[in-house]
Each structure stands twice: as C-alpha cells, then as structure tokens.
Design goal:
Number of strands: 17
Helix content: under 10%
Number of helices: 1
Shape: globular
Radius of gyration: 22 Å
Strand content: 15-25%
Length: 279
C-alpha cells in the first residue's frame, strides 16, 4: 500500500496525504449480519459527565462485530475480503469457515483473499493463524494478544503494530511491546501471528479541519483562553500565565508528567518499563 500526496487544487488539499485503499481493499459493503448500530456518547460516561474533551458530531458509523477471541479451533477458514472499518485504524478480514460460519478478524499484514487461516493450540506458524504463546517460537512477531486466557485479544491491535515474543519461562511468556515495555503474559494465552495491517496509517495527514470534524473531533481550546469557571488555567487579563505551579486538567487533576498509574496487581508482570524514545 502507498500514501498519495494530493495536488493542492484547493487550500484544504495542500499537504494532504491519503491512503490508496483500492490497492488492498477488496470489498466496499460490509457483511450485513456482522454489523450493528452504535450509540454516540460524545466523550461522556454512564452518568453523562464529559470525561474526554472535544468530542461530538461526526459522520454516522456502523460497528463491525470483530471476533477477538477466535475460538473456532481446528476449523479452517478462508479470507473472502479485506474491508475498511470506520471505527478502527486497522483493516478487517472477512473469514468464512468450512462449516459456513462467518466472522471479522483484524487483518494481518500480507493477508490476501483466498488465504487460509486456522486457530488452535498448536498450528502452523503463518501470518493470520492463532495459537498459544507457549507453542510459538521465540522472536516471532505477534499481535492481538490475550492478557487473560479466554478473554480475547486486548493489546497490540492498532494499525501497523506488533509485539515480539522473547521466550517462555515458568508459565509465562515474555513479550516486548511496541512501546519497548517487556511484560509477562500467561503461556496459555493466545496470540495471532504477524503484524496488524495498514502500517502506512501513521503517514496520513488530515489536511483540513472539516475532515477532522467528520471524525467526531471538535476544536480544541487552550485552558488559559477560557473562564475560571470552565478551566483551572482560565481568567486573567490579556495573555496572562496559568497562575499555577503545575498545569492541571479541566477537572483539576495534575497533568504533564504526573504519574497516574496506581498500585496494580499487574505491576508484578512488568519486567521492564517503557522508556522515552530518542529522536
């Protein structure tokens, strides 16, 4: 797949980079039985309180029912199409199994139409297949990894991401995450072979504000430009500073370097913390 730099025929297209989907996608209409409508929450929680700022509006989207567990063991499936999903950055693969059942899974990079995939505790090491971590050789690239056996893939699911299996020891598999963090995962957990599709997603440039609005993202306003009732940084005359020793969120919690991770049971499973990437 390639990224195309548009010619600046309009001001909004100047510098815009788009993904040429026709080079990899094979279907436009999703499978009707595998989609459902979604309710917009616009960044609000169950009590109606805004917990994520600057969200709302956007084009209507339909949710694809993605199978993250992939528990049809031993039944081979064939890739019928590679499709676009408006709710995520990665592409989806439409799988039709030999018993007639259909499902969506995260498309693996390099997976094509008519390729075969199979799930099981110990299957062939091939992109798209899914098996237990203890049966995967070291240094193999994996994605859609379970943290709790049987719960379904929870990590490494975004476009172009992948983790590396470093080895298995004492009932746990050592996995190097895309961030550089090394953590333990139970060896009975499942993972898919290969990296997630659409690795060029990081090179896309939106180009214009209207395209961002259609994604449901509203304009961001600086805290110091607001009133004191709306933000801790607000108030003052002219371009006054925030007036605080440390910056805060709209709800008053410290931000920018403030550590929010509390004592968790999963801390014992983290072998090496992620570090800052050098540029």
């Amino acid at each position: 797949m390639s990224i195309k730099l548009l010619k600046p025929r309009t001001p909004g297209q100047r510098g815009m980079k788009v993904n040429i989907y026709r080079e990899v996608l094979t279907s436009k209409k999703p499978v009707k039985s595998l989609i459902r409508g979604t309710k917009r929450n616009s960044g609000r929680n169950s009590r109606g309180v805004i917990t994520i700022q600057h969200r709302g509006g956007g084009a209507k989207q339909r949710m694809r029912q993605v199978d993250f567990k992939q528990r049809k063991f031993g039944i081979p499936g064939i890739v019928r199409a590679i499709e676009y999903d408006p709710k995520r950055t990665a592409f989806l693969a439409h799988i039709v199994f030999s018993d007639g059942e259909q499902s969506y899974i995260l498309a693996t990079e390099g997976l094509k139409v008519n390729d075969k995939v199979i799930y099981g505790p110990s299957t062939k090491i091939k992109p798209g297949n899914r098996l237990m971590l203890k049966n995967i050789p070291a240094s193999v690239t994996i994605h859609n990894i379970e943290l709790t056996p049987g719960k379904g893939g929870q990590i490494v699911r975004s476009a172009g991401s992948s983790a590396t299996l470093m080895g298995v020891d004492e009932g746990y598999a050592l996995i190097k995450m895309p961030s550089g963090e090394v953590r333990k995962v139970p060896e009975e957990a499942y993972a898919s072979i290969g990296s997630v599709s659409n690795p060029e997603h990081m090179n896309i440039k939106i180009g214009k504000a209207g395209r961002t609005r259609r994604m449901g993202r509203r304009p961001r306003v600086r805290g110091k430009a607001k009133n004191p009732v709306d933000h801790p940084h607000g108030g003052g005359e002219g371009g006054s500073p925030i007036g605080l020793k440390h910056p805060k969120t709209p709800t008053g919690k410290p931000t920018r370097g403030y550590k929010t991770r509390k004592r968790k049971l999963s801390n014992r499973l983290i072998v090496k913390r992620r570090g800052k990437k050098r540029r």
